[in-house]
TrEMBL record, chain A:
The lineage of its organism: Bacteria, Bacillati, Bacillota, Clostridia, Lachnospirales. This is Aspartyl/glutamyl-tRNA(Asn/Gln) amidotransferase subunit B. Keywords: ATP-binding, Ligase, Nucleotide-binding, Protein biosynthesis, Transferase. The gene is gatB. The keyword Mitochondrion does not apply. It comes from Anaerocolumna xylanovorans DSM 12503. GO terms for molecular function: asparaginyl-tRNA synthase (glutamine-hydrolyzing) activity; ATP binding; glutaminyl-tRNA synthase (glutamine-hydrolyzing) activity; transferase activity.
Automatic annotation (TrEMBL), chain B:
GO terms for biological process: glutaminyl-tRNAGln biosynthesis via transamidation; regulation of translational fidelity; translation. NCBIfam families: gatC. PANTHER family: GLUTAMYL-TRNA(GLN) AMIDOTRANSFERASE SUBUNIT C, MITOCHONDRIAL. This is Aspartyl/glutamyl-tRNA(Asn/Gln) amidotransferase subunit C. Keywords: ATP-binding, Ligase, Nucleotide-binding, Protein biosynthesis, Transferase. It comes from Anaerocolumna xylanovorans DSM 12503. Pfam families: GatC. GO terms for molecular function: asparaginyl-tRNA synthase (glutamine-hydrolyzing) activity; ATP binding; glutaminyl-tRNA synthase (glutamine-hydrolyzing) activity; transferase activity. Belongs to the GatC family. Heterotrimer of A, B and C subunits. It catalyses: L-glutamyl-tRNA(Gln) + L-glutamine + ATP + H2O = L-glutaminyl-tRNA(Gln) + L-glutamate + ADP + phosphate + H(+); L-aspartyl-tRNA(Asn) + L-glutamine + ATP + H2O = L-asparaginyl-tRNA(Asn) + L-glutamate + ADP + phosphate + 2 H(+).
Automatic annotation (TrEMBL), chain C:
The gene is gatA. Residues 24-468 form the Amidase domain. GO terms for cellular component: glutamyl-tRNA(Gln) amidotransferase complex. This is Glutamyl-tRNA(Gln) amidotransferase subunit A. It comes from Anaerocolumna xylanovorans DSM 12503. It is an enzyme of class 6 (ligase). Allows the formation of correctly charged Gln-tRNA(Gln) through the transamidation of misacylated Glu-tRNA(Gln) in organisms which lack glutaminyl-tRNA synthetase. The reaction takes place in the presence of glutamine and ATP through an activated gamma-phospho-Glu-tRNA(Gln).
């Protein structure tokens, strides 16, 4: 068998984190009862007109600047015409002739080393609605809640050669967009979706092979499997001496294979033309500079700063900044209670453990910085010990409870009354003469047992340091 | 301009129209003469002239990113020829 | 006295002076419609009860002193059926929207209501405003009240005919390639197509977005100016709406036009124009000269390519704008279908008429891969040249004067068989839409059959006041002649 090289380019659709849709004042909130986040404009009612959400332009520019793109300072929208029930106007307002950003790239790092993946263009467009199959009537139901949610489509050059590179590119892109605040990039909610263009060619060949497209992939795992599966399929076709058909295929992650989508009845002729209902966008140097100056700290800078400013190990800084949400949580918590290392520890150890247990991502964390900071303060003030703290943290992680209230209500704070502690310890000494003897005869371990017994008697609400101290005073 | 059956079928498909044989023949004649007439534009030298979509040099008309609309589903669905469970209803889209 | 013969402003004054109530005006207008409309078919919907109750509400506002500065408060108005009216059927003269009831008002309708106008009905039109005769409506043809064997023109034929037949005091139309001016000319009434962006398009069902503009049709120039005062203004809902300083039209009427420079394009008086119309137009020019304007003939460049460029652009935009009528969200859906593709194809094939289908196919063609540059982009370049030509003309002149149409109203049934021939009738009107200019059509005589002839005055961008002033003075001189 010959050796083949896989050539992959991506079209990534990202839903922008604006409050309202691209052309009307409807909310972009995910979910909601069908057709309740809609108005006459986004459902394409006769006579209605679009008015562009300025924030969309700013977000698109921010994304372009952060990915090294040139900004088209004169750009406009075009109509892409086709019929489908999820597209109520039967055209999608998009950008063909003058996309807002072009010719950028981002650096990725994989086992194969560092490389730059080129970004061909970024353009703005509107999302389509959702089609739901109704098994009772065997028909399709149309929900336009997502219709008109602003998107940017980031089109890469065909620069990737493996699933690993694709994932690295997507991870990097996701972090950039999250850090910019341009998108939440929640793949499970469809805020980030990728179309994969893939072809194979004999190693060393100059020309690209015929490519296929797999649309709307929304999990990294599925993407990696789809690339592997499609690569194998194409090589097999070529090895049999056949040719690849340029087509759109649907990846079935359950069956681990892709299927050719039934080719549309009509030729794909989108008849793009300039959108007459919207006026051109002119981006002045001043506006561009203003956005550039507002660009937030991105991941790489943040990592370095954590190491320097907070004295956090590079590995930990990498994990924490690996999620915008986690990094925000970290910084907000530190702002409230100081002690960056302690904060980092709770995030790195307990938080990660619980996330793993529940098979969740850092984006899914629901607890607040206030409550984590509250917990750390309780520990710092010697109000609770570490064992109790872990228990309280689990409640914070799960239900975002207020640790101060919780500790008070459950009576978990440490007994600080030395009299009570001393009386308990005296009782334990009296009840465990054997251990007392062991300790006195030099077996240090016996002290630990006595501490444990005291703690048990105190139902865990004591400071182990204080117990140690009093025990030693009484025994020595 | 000679408009072929194929052209008529192609533009009818793009416009999602079904034409009878008679309509096709009429369309061939009409579109032939109209599009042929349109081609008289070629007599005019437009070398170096930029295509003009908008007559006025207006640009940057933006809306604030503020939610203005509340749910009004009944009004949106009132005109729908078929609906179910708060959705527009169409024949199934996937086989 | 027959109050339906009054102008809109005259009626408005009588209502203000409590000589007649708004409700009485509505009743008398409804009576007139009942008497005449079975013959002319100006209306698709007549809103008898709704208009009466609205009139009573308006009367309360007038009595409360709220509408003191609204000269047309309480006066009934007819609205073309492609302008969305909340809770009132808005059909565009098409089967495909035969039952469509918008849940919103067009901005112009909101503005009318704020000024106390009472909408009395929705007028007939060529389907989706595509046509020059009002013969392509799903709701039957409208007849010209001046001679019922003739068409009223189009596409705002219902509005123009209603005003001509005293079935409306004034009306709104829309003009994409002449659809206000040409039926106004054919019916012997006055209509103005404002500068693109002067009147909000929000709620106007789109035919060709870059060309469409709403405007008034009235019994005289002053009524049009008063109506334009109401409906003009910047609208945040329409991105192509242009904020300007030049609103306020009624107040300039009566000002003189001394020193005003008027140009007549030589090509507008050339072959293809009927002799009678030419004579009337030149006589009108003479009248304006007497009023102190200077008149000069000149060459208007590239204008002969306006029709092909117009039909390319309008059809392209229409093919896209009308794709949303697919039987899913509103309007007509075919009864008998199997699968989604049949819903689309049968709904659209059964729901649209021939002229609309023709333009959608032309539009699909000129935008399709391989033809875009040769047709669509070429048309946009031609448009740029035509605009340059007008810009140069307006460096020299304040107003361009010419006929509205090359002939008077044709007989019913004569136009549709040869669509290209019908398109050529738009020769004097379409360039105004391509260039976004304002233009008014007003009566300037009749031909030997007694059919009205329209005079067209084209103004600079936002030069509505100039053309209204000149039109008003010309109208005054004609009154003297008639008297």
């Amino acid at each position: 068998m010959k050796t083949y090289e896989t050539v992959i380019g991506l079209e990534v659709h990202v839903e922008l984190a604006t409050k309202t849709k691209i052309f009307c004042g409807c909310t972009t909130l995910f979910g909601g009862e069908p057709n309740t986040h809609c108005c006459p404009v986004c459902t394409g009612m006769p006579g209605t007109l679009p008015v562009l959400n300025g924030k969309v332009v700013e977000f698109a520019i921010a994304a372009g600047l952060a990915t090294g793109c040139e900004i088209n300072q004169n750009c406009k929208f075009d109509r892409k015409n086709y019929f489908y029930p999820d597209l109520p106007k039967a055209y999608q307002v998009s950008q063909l002739y003058l996309p807002i950003c072009h010719d950028g790239g981002i650096e990725i790092e994989t086992s194969a080393g560092k490389k730059v993946v080129g970004i061909h263009e970024i353009h703005m467009e509107e999302d389509a609605g959702k089609l739901i199959h109704d098994p009772w009537e065997d028909c399709t139901l149309v929900d336009y809640n997502r219709c008109g949610v602003p998107l940017i489509e980031i089109v890469s050059d065909p620069d990737m050669r493996s699933a690993e590179e694709v994932i690295a590119y997507l991870e990097k892109l996701k972090l950039i967009l999250q850090y910019l605040g341009v998108s939440d990039c929640k793949m499970q909610e469809g805020s980030l979706r990728a179309d994969i263009n893939l072809s194979v060619r004999e190693m060393g060949a100059k020309e690209f092979g015929t490519r296929t497209e797999m649309k709307n992939m929304n999990s990294f795992k599925a993407i990696a499997r789809a690339i592997e599966g499609e690569r194998k399929r194409q090589i097999e076709v070529l090895e049999y001496g056949k040719v690849i058909t340029q087509e759109t295929r649907r990846w079935d992650d359950n069956k681990d294979t892709s299927f050719a989508m039934r080719s549309k009845e009509d030729a794909q002729d989108y008849r793009y033309f300039p959108e007459p209902d919207l006026v051109p966008i002119v981006i002045s140097d001043e506006w561009l500079l203003e956005i550039e100056n507002r660009q937030p700290e991105l991941r790489d800078e943040k990592m370095l700063r954590y190491e320097k400013e907070y004295d956090i190990p590079a590995y930990d800084a990498g994990i924490i900044t690996g999620s915008k949400h986690l990094a925000d949580l970290f910084e907000e918590t530190v702002a409230l209670c100081g002690r960056p290392k302690e904060v980092s520890n709770w995030l790195m150890v307990e938080t990660m453990r619980l996330l793993k247990e529940e098979e969740k991502e850092p984006e899914d964390i629901t607890f607040s910085a206030e409550h984590l900071a509250g917990l750390i303060k309780l520990i710092g003030d010697n109000k609770i010990n570490r064992t109790v703290a872990k228990e309280v943290f689990e409640k914070i992680f799960k239900d975002n409870i207020d640790p101060v209230k919780y500790v008070e209500e459950k009576g978990l704070s440490m007994v600080s009354d030395e009299g009570v502690l001393k009386a308990t310890i005296e009782k334990i000494i009296a009840e465990n003469p054997a251990s007392v003897n062991d300790y006195r005869s030099g077996k240090e371990k016996a002290l630990g047992f006595l501490v444990g017994q005291t703690m048990k008697e105190m139902k865990g609400k004591a400071d182990p340091g204080a117990i140690n101290k009093i025990l030693k005073e009484l025994l020595d | 301009m000679e408009i072929t059956d194929k052209t008529i079928e192609y533009v009818a498909a793009l416009a999602k129209l079904e034409l009878t044989q008679e309509e096709k023949e009429k369309a061939k004649t009409d579109l032939g003469s109209i599009i042929g007439y349109m081609a008289t534009m070629n007599e005019l030298d437009t070398e170096g002239i930029k295509p003009m979509s908008h007559v006025f040099p207006i640009h940057n008309v933006f809306r604030e990113d503020v939610v203005e609309n509340g749910p009004d589903r009944d009004a949106l669905l009132e005109n729908a020829p078929a609906k179910k469970d708060g959705c527009f209803m169409v024949p199934k889209t996937v086989e | 006295m027959d109050i339906t013969k009054l102008s809109a402003l005259e009626l408005g004054k009588k209502i203000k002076e409590k000589e007649i109530s708004a409700a009485e005006a509505v009743s008398l207008q409804i009576d007139r419609i009942k008497e005449k409309d079975s013959e002319y078919n100006c209306y698709i919907s007549v809103l008898e009860e709704r208009a009466l109750s609205e009139a009573k509400e308006v009367q309360k506002r007038i009595d409360g002193g709220e509408l003191a500065d609204a000269p047309l408060a309480g006066v009934p108005i007819a609205v073309k059926d492609n302008i969305c009216t909340k809770g009132i059927k808005t059909t565009c003269g098409s089967k495909i929207l035969y039952n469509f009831i918008p849940p919103y008002n067009a901005t112009v309708v909101e503005k009318l209501k704020a000024q106390g106008a009472v909408i009395i009905g929705k007028t007939n039109m060529d389907e989706f405003a595509m046509g020059s005769t009002t013969e392509t409506s799903y709701f039957g043809i409208t007849k010209n009240p001046r001679n019922t064997e003739h068409v009223p023109g189009g596409s705002s034929g219902g509005s123009a005919a209603a005003v001509a037949a005293d079935e409306a005091f004034y009306a709104l139309g829309s003009d994409t390639g002449g659809s206000i001016r040409q039926p106004s000319a054919f019916c012997g009434v006055t209509g103005i197509k404002p500068t693109y962006g002067t009147v909000s398009r929000y709620g106007l069902v789109a035919y060709a977005s870059s060309l469409d503009q709403i405007g008034p049709i009235g019994k005289n120039v002053a009524d049009c100016a008063a109506a334009l005062d109401i409906i003009s203004g910047h609208d945040k809902k329409d991105s192509t709406s242009v904020p300007t300083e030049s609103y306020g039209y009624l107040k300039v009427l009566g000002e003189d036009i001394k020193g005003m420079k008027i140009g007549i394009p030589k090509g507008y008086l050339g072959s293809g124009l009927s002799e009678e119309i030419k004579r009337s137009i030149l006589a009108a020019a003479k009248e304006l000269e007497k009023q102190g304007a200077s008149i000069e003939e000149f060459d208007l460049e590239a204008v002969e390519y306006a029709i092909p460029a117009y039909y390319v652009i309008a059809s392209a935009e229409a093919s896209s704008n009308l794709s949303r009528y697919d039987g899913i969200k509103y309007g007509f859906r075919t009864e008998d279908f199997e699968g989604l593709q049949e819903v689309y194809k049968k709904t659209r094939s059964e729901g649209f008429g021939n002229e609309v289908k023709r333009r959608m196919m032309i539009g699909a063609f000129v935008l399709s891969s391989g033809y875009y540059d040769a047709y669509y982009n070429k048309a946009l370049r031609v448009k740029a040249l035509i605009k340059e030509g007008f810009d140069r003309a307006f460096d020299k002149y304040d107003i361009i004067l010419g006929p509205t149409a090359p002939a008077t109203a044709p007989r019913i049934g004569e136009s549709l068989s040869d669509p290209l021939q019908m398109y050529l009738g738009d020769i004097y009107t379409v360039s105004v839409n391509l260039t976004g200019l304002p233009a008014i059509s007003l009566p300037c005589g009749t031909d030997k059959m007694g059919l009205p002839i329209g005079l067209q005055l084209i103004g600079k961008h936002f030069g509505e006041r100039d053309i209204l002033k000149a039109a008003y003075l010309f109208e005054q001189t004609r009154k003297e002649v008639v008297l």
